[in-house]
Amino acid sequence: MNATHQSGGEEAWPELAVLRRERKKQAQTRHLRRGNARHGSKPRRRRGAGAGAGAGGARPLGESGRGWCRLAARRPSDRCPSAAARRPGARAAVGGGRMFRNQYDNDVTVWSPQGRIHQIEYAMEAVKQGSATVGLKSKTHAVLVALKRAQSELAAHQKKILYVDNHIGISIAGLTADARLLCNFMRQECLDSRFVFDRPLPVSRLVSLIGSKTQIPTQRYGRRPYGVGLLIAGYDDMGPHIFQTCPSANYFDCKAMSIGARSQSARTYLERHMTEFTDCNLNELVKHGLRALRETLPAEQDLTTKNVSIGIVGKDMEFTIYDDDDVAPFLEGLEERPQRKPAAPADEPAEKSEEPMEH
């Protein structure tokens, strides 16, 4: 009896499988009909069924399951760019090839197709936005002149010239926080040289160390360049020096230099009078620096004891910073700024010359 029941059960299994397949097909058909009825399309026909089937059982184009196409269109897929574009936060990833942000400025180790590193360019732009500073040298002295800014009338002016060692000082343009970090590093290196070798650190050696330190963030993932430019003034056995450092880790030995906002006007003045700096005495050298710095100011502003800072180092003279009232003697000997001729309004016609123009 048990054997008969067992054999009967084995014969019933194929029937159950067929029944399940039929029920599954019925459920799919009902689901398809509901979708077609909802979207107003005709029910899907099987290939080769019905009078509308063509040769070889092909279906008419109008009855090729438009309901499923519409259902698929209403269900956004991650593989569909048009659906992904409708998701919030996906505008930067897709959008017909148009990018809403630069895809090559996410990290300092990413190069653009043009061979540029945008993070370094952004850091150099921060230097251009900082207040202007000027550095120049003669045979015996090196001078730094910087323009100080105040965040508001209630705030004090920020320091732009920093003391490093008895024979070295710096002026900054850019992020002050980064400048303080580099200044502390320079002070530590100068102290190490005096403690280990019992001698002042040569200026060129210190600038080389700064270049090596500022290059590290430009080559490592997840870091950013230092957003500050430095003018380094120093005096050693080789004489006075003026060095310029950049966020790109480049550094240059200069006779005279200016960095910061509107510094091109100051560089133009320095280039015009560069031959005079070599034989100048200290007072004349400082005046040249003040004149160059004044070129960076708008026409309605002028140099005062509150917005100017001066740093001097030279032979038999340690690095000294002059602020506030100490700057007054240098400003007193400075001639008045020549008034610039205002430009004519655009709506007024230009004056006609008395002589006719030659063609």
From TrEMBL:
SMART domains linked to this entry: Proteasome_A_N
GO annotation terms (biological process): negative regulation of inflammatory response to antigenic stimulus; ubiquitin-dependent protein catabolic process
Compositional bias (Gly residues): 49-59
Keywords of the record: Cytoplasm, Nucleus, Proteasome
Domain spans labelled Proteasome alpha-type subunits: 104-126
Similarity comment text for this entry: Belongs to the peptidase T1A family.
Name of the protein this chain belongs to: Proteasome subunit alpha type-1
Originating organism: Anser brachyrhynchus
Originating gene: PSMA1
